[in-house]
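Journal club prep — side note

Before the paper discussion, L.F. wants everyone to see what a predicted structure for a comparable chain looks like in token form. Sequence:
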Amino acid sequence: MSSLSLAARDSATMLRRNLLHVRRYPSMTLNLLLTPVVLLLLFVYVFGDVMSAGIDGGADRSAYLAYLVPGIMLLTIGGTTIGSAVSVAMDMTEGIIARFRTMAIHRGSVLIGHVAGSVLQCVMSVVVVGAVAVAIGFRATDATALEWLAAVGLLALVSLALTWVAVGMGLTSPNAEAAGNNALPLMVLPLLSSAFVPVDAMPGWFQPIARYQPFTPAIETLRGLLLGTEIGHNGWLAVAWCLALAALGYTWSKSLFDRPPK
């Protein structure tokens, strides 16, 4: 077999291993998924009328639901990748990586398996959150087939970028608890973006924090694709942020993983 075939085979094996872990120990995935669902229901049914009145001057809960869902989807991805950081940290501290290093497997397949498994989890989590949103009234009737395809591609690209960053956080953490804490910004940053209110409605001193971060252009792009609103320069900004974070996360993770064990 060629080296490429061996790498693909070993990566597929590691992917199956990570998916089996998710199936056998679903509690972490469910806990991370519960947060965006609770936030969605809370902001729609408790704060929906007030938030909508503050944004467009009319108390319309359904309008606020349409505004909210794209941000919740990105928050779901950020939360799901925390599980990847924890899983990588557990592998690094429980000795299994040391055994993998002695086996005739492709060296990068361990990280590739984690990344591929995390991206699949992110997609499944977004589908679940999207199903909840549809059940409570969300509709994207203005989106064309091409816009839906672009939206799915953006979600997958964000998942890939954040996963590589989360893998690096897991590799640099001394234990699983520290990994969860280190990766927490991946779920906090969406809360500080345009997910819940427009940037222009925020206090002036806070607007640069919300505007110049990776989640806001991704949320505005997804919102534009699903709702038919203007995207402007947010599309290329979102792609640029994703590519930069993916390259940074990959380089960081590879350098940490390739270091000789202490």
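L.F.'s comment for the group: DSSP finds twelve helices and no strands in the chain. Keep this in mind when we get to the figures.
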